[in-house]
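Retry 2 of 3 after timeout on previous attempt. Resubmitting structure tokens to design endpoint.
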């Protein structure tokens, strides 16, 4: 993801790169589900790590692909609402990085490349979408390493640092909607 963000940043003139706002996106989920999982915490940590390693100071997390009943609250801000807010606050250059998606599928291509790009253009913003990791060789190698780690009797955990493979696994039923007693 760091390489994808840097590639997107290079599409801006050098003198404007420090003013670019980096917006990470992920699929929105109902608030009730978010409150019973580590989804937001993990996304915020991932965005911090990518922005830091890419050398980007100003970044935010937004959500996309909201669905379901309108009365059910979901994670916000929506990417289009955040673009409005950025524009209102004088930001003209934005990189959108779909950190919650590993490939260019419908929700990335339509929500970001169509709706997001069109909305930003209507606001007069320069909008660049960072690529997904897809089949990037380093991403594919990481997946292979994770699989190898999980099949070892005493995992080395290179991809997870000093943690054991089970430290970050969800507890049973962590992503279910909370039930009121």
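Retry 2 succeeded. Sequence:
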């Amino acid at each position: 993801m760091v390489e994808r963000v840097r590639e997107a940043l290079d599409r801006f003139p050098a003198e404007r790169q420090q003013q670019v706002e980096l917006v990470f996106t992920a699929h929105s989920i109902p608030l009730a589900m978010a409150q019973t999982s580590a989804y937001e915490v993990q996304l915020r940590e991932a965005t911090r790590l990518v922005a830091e390693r890419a050398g980007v100071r100003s970044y935010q997390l937004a959500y996309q692909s909201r669905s379901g009943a309108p009365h059910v609250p979901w994670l916000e801000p929506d990417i289009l609402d955040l673009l409005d807010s950025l524009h209102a606050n004088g930001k003209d250059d934005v990189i959108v990085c779909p950190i919650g998606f590993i490939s260019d599928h419908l929700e990335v291509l339509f929500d970001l490349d169509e709706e997001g790009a069109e909305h930003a253009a209507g606001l007069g913003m320069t909008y660049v979408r960072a690529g997904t990791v897809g089949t990037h060789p380093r991403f594919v190698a990481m997946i292979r390493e994770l699989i190898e780690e999980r099949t070892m009797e005493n995992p080395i955990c290179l991809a997870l640092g000093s943690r054991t493979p089970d430290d970050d696994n969800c507890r049973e039923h962590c992503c279910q909607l909370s039930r009121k007693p």
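Attempt log closed. Residues 106-123 form the longest helix (18 residues).
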